[in-house]
Amino acid sequence: MPRGTQSLEMLRRIEVRYNLPKDHLKMKLPHQGRAARGHHPGLSVGPAELRRLAWHLYDDFNLRSATEQLENVTWARTNVISKTTDYRRYQAGTIKEAFGLKFHGFGKEKRETSRRRCAPPSLTGEMKELVRFKTGTLTEVGQLRNKKWGEFSANQKIEHFGLFLGALSASPTSAIAGAGVPVSSLTLALLVFPSVWDWYLSWRERRRGFFTVWEGNMLSAILELARADTGWLWQKPELANRLHPIPDLVELEDIARASSDWHGQCAAVSKYASVRFAEIKEVARVHRDPFEPILPILEADNPLAEYRKITEEILRRIPDERRYPIQAAEAARSYLMLRIGLHLGVRQRNLRELLICPKDTTPTTERRLAERRCGELRWSFREEKWEVFIPAVAFKNSGSSFFGKNPFRLLIDDLSGLYDVLEAYIDRHRARLLGPASDPGTLFVKTTKRTSSTAAYDEATFYSAWNLTIQRYGIYNPYTDRGAIKGLLAHGPHCVRDVLATHVLKMTGSYEQASYAIQDTPETVMKHYGRFFPQDKAAMAAKVLNKIWEVK
Description:
This protein is mostly helical. It has helices spanning 5-17, 47-53, 66-81, 86-94, 121-135, 151-169, 194-208, 213-225, 252-260, 262-283, 295-298, 303-316, 325-344, 348-352, 366-372, 418-434, 459-474, 495-508, 511-517, 522-529, 534-545, 547-550, and strands at residues 101-102, 117-118, 355-356, 376-380, 385-390, 408-412. The chain has a 4-stranded mixed sheet.
């Protein structure tokens, strides 16, 4: 089948010769979901970048002028591939500087780059003690605990403290401009010194240019750990024995004072953190606006209908399964990711860990799902519909009043041909994606290759899969006329929650009903999810008020 740029040019000439509509023959090709081959940008574009750019370039790119080629490549780089927002540009610059420390031995570990340094054994031991204290079912005899961490909170705190300590130990002459503390001198006991916190907060402000919620969250963490009676640091005075002097940060007299009055030192850092928290809260700015990539959708009168255009674009370009079985399976997976995500409104982890129970298989018990902390897509013989069942403990906000300790159960109706695609995916497509790899049991699986270690998605790969779907089918490309929505930017699965909450708000004006769509509370929707513009509120009120003028 024609795929090269030269072949597609010949196809265009045939259309012109026989006076056919533009792309009349091209749209009859059995695989609409792949890029042309044979582009020659010649603009410092390497092979790896060209593979990502090819989808977004003119089919007749090679015949275009240098100005048009540069304009096309620049647009694709800016609006699709990367660095699409201020925060992404900041992140792209800082991610190259791997200064954080990594801790081994905490169950599921993220794939780490070799540039990140390992924490020393003594510091790793302290971190294990802290995590055991905050995550254990019961505390050890003699210890008191105010709040327990879940798996997500524990992993987050490990990551955040790794960045804190990594900044302290980074070289002052490097691009990171750290404090130069020897790695062997690092200990969690440093957290009780206000001077250390003052250095870190100032470093964060210099690095980003302003304060954000991040700094407030870190101060909240030390308030929790240094709290009288129940804080982990409060109950670990022996940590003072691991302190060493650090020029301009921790002097010998500071260590002596902390050793002689550990509880007094904890009280001092708590008082300091309370004052700093209030000060930072007044000036903190939002750097990552979660609404920015999806503003064209949120500003639409019907956000959900606008997002639906992406799923329709996927179906329009799904390849012929008989000729391209793997590519058809990948397109079906992309379609179902968005469709199931839009029906459920759950967080990324709940969606990617969703198990699949075929019709001829006995569903997993609630107790077993609760142990695994995941949900399941299963067939309801009573309702004769597919349903999603997720125990409350599988949710990040399992203690929310939304659940009341009851499981989440949602029947998914057969709308817009959903069941046809879903059952074809379960029966045929999913097995093709798995290949010879072992089945993780989840609904969504990666396309396995010889080098694949597992078919299960993790947080990063699931985000990438969603992001790529948006790049290919969601973002309207004026150069190729592909994509569904003008002005859309690449984003991940969490944005679906913003779309659903905003859609319900625009339709009903109710924060309570919007919270039902994403399994949360009205307060959370008001604070984090709903993009309810003043003009939307005014228009909704006007509909009620204008009725009086309709009476004759």
